[in-house]
Design goal:
The protein has 3 helices and 9 strands. The chain is α+β, with helices and mostly antiparallel strands and 184 residues long. The chain has a single domain, classed as Umud Fragment, subunit A (Ribbon), CATH 2.10.109. Strands 1, 2, 3, 4, 5, 6, 7, 8 and 9 form a 9-stranded antiparallel sheet that branches. A hairpin with a 2-residue loop joins strand 4 and strand 5. Helix 2 runs antiparallel to helix 3. The two termini are 14 Å apart.
């Protein structure tokens, strides 16, 4: 919880923070992997389908894509999320658990913005991809082909992302923001 408070303090004082992606994390491959970093801003504004969100899950932070709002359960608004590199949907995410929204990523040393029309269109296509392959994975697991479908899903991403991501996400200067001493 101290990390959460440090992050929220940075966001309230500076408006943004840089958070490193933990080595070995593959949940957002090929978009993010260990050694990359994200620039986050407060999640006070309306969250959009396709946004990358930073949130707490158990005792660690997660960056995953927002797929769709879910009907309020017990009066608590929630989202459906998924790591692009995973073939399963995440458990229901209460909106109150979202700590920040990702506005830029550092991949292989370059900072790329997730803002702007081309990036929003890309995010929307990623939502469609994630929803389709999560459904295909669920069906395939019922007939014993879950691993095959997950491999195809990841293979499609490994082919498409390196070609498309740099085309629609403009390069930006490294942010001056610092972050809490923590990784996602």
């Amino acid at each position: 919880m101290l990390r959460d408070q440090a992050l929220l303090l940075l966001l309230s004082e500076r408006g943004e923070a840089v958070v490193a992606i933990r080595e070995g994390d593959t949940s957002m491959v090929p978009h993010l992997k260990g050694g990359d970093a994200v620039l986050v801003v407060g999640a006070t504004a309306r969250l959009l389908t396709g946004d990358l969100l930073l949130y707490r899950q158990q005792d660690y932070w997660v960056v995953h894509r927002a797929l769709a709002p879910l009907a309020a359960h017990d009066g608590i608004p929630a989202l459906r999320t998924r790591g692009d590199g995973r073939n399963l949907l995440d458990p229901r995410l209460a909106l109150k658990d979202v700590l920040a929204r990702v506005v830029a990523v550092r991949r292989e040393g370059d900072w790329r913005s997730l803002e702007g029309r081309p990036a929003r269109v890309y995010a929307r296509f990623m939502v469609w991809h994630d929803e389709f392959w999560a459904l295909a994975g669920a069906v395939a697991r019922n007939v014993g082909l879950g691993r095959l479908v997950a491999a195809i899903d990841l293979g499609v991403l490994r082919l498409a992302v390196p070609a498309l991501f740099p085309l629609v996400h403009r390069r930006i200067a490294p942010p001056a923001a610092s972050g809490p001493d923590a990784t996602v």
